[in-house]
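thread: overnight batch results

M.L. [08:02]
morning all. the overnight job finished for the chain we discussed friday. pasting input first so we're all looking at the same thing
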Amino acid sequence: MESRTTSALKTLALIVLSLLLAAGGVEVLRQLGNSGIVIMAAILITYLILPLVGFLQRRMPLALALLLTYVAIAAILAFAFVVIVPPLVDQAHQLITNLPSAVVTLQHDLSNPENPIVKKLPPDVRAYLNNLPAQMNAIVAKYGLGVVQGTLGAFFSIVTLFLSLIIIPVLSAYLFFDSAELKRSLLGFVPVAARPKTLAILADLNTTLGAFVQGQALDGLILGSLITIMLSIMHVPYALLIGVTAGILNLIPYVGAIIGFIPSVILALIYNGWENALIVGILFAVIQQIDGNLILPRVMKTSVQLSPLIIVVAILVFSAFFGVIGTFLAVPVAAMLRVFKLHFAPAPKDAEYVSDEQRARDLRELRTRTSTTPG
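M.L. [08:03]
and the structure it wrote out:
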């Protein structure tokens, strides 16, 4: 009993320490600004290419494996810039150009008393929907200047973007070359007796984080492809733009499909009518079910070993405390905490758990009999 209590206290201490480190890490990233984004991007790229580099490294030196990997990435990026980026830019330009007329059409549909969906809504809801396009116009007018200024700022920082595209692969390469030395330096702060367990924990953390990044990238690719194909079949405009955006945002679990749902249904309503919008909404629900019940659970079970409940709670808590950065870091930090728990306070075996449950029932029955016995 004493050893289990000690293990539980150690786990609690590690959880508190991990959360403090996570909070400190989020604050450091905020202070670093663009530099923090570059560092995070280098880490993500490292984990994404890790399987290919590892496969090639078993057959050739690390430097040659990295070179071939970067050549492959450059070829993929060149293909994307030739095939995918031009229609993306074209769709984004069309969306900005057609947005005012789309808002007018939406307002007409929402105020139409013959609309079979709107006329069944309560009067207060119909009044709110009727005023919604005007509120959207007010928001665009209020913040439009800021958006333009932000766009100009992004345009003038194009040099920074190109520098980042150079720095990120260089940082990633250094992570590969210096990983063994970094690990050895870290072990210098650990007592000799604890070094084997430390190495085991580091290996599990590295595997878990790598599997999470790779799994989320794969899930985002599948989800974005499904959304793009579905919207194209349903003749919803800007299908590629919405699908790519949803796939990228899916780096945060469950966020991509939710973000893609709203503009897709609104655009389907504006351009194709309420029947098409209803079908699009149903198909989005089907895609979300496929992703949430088939694709994502398999990805998470083979990577971070977290249940959907833990994932959702972690995202809610970290987003409340740390904002967007916390939302992105929620699942990796939760997965790291799970690794610490497995090493320092593993769950009881089946026989021990059954025995503990029986003892708990006996204690409850004893308390019930004691409380109902006349004094």
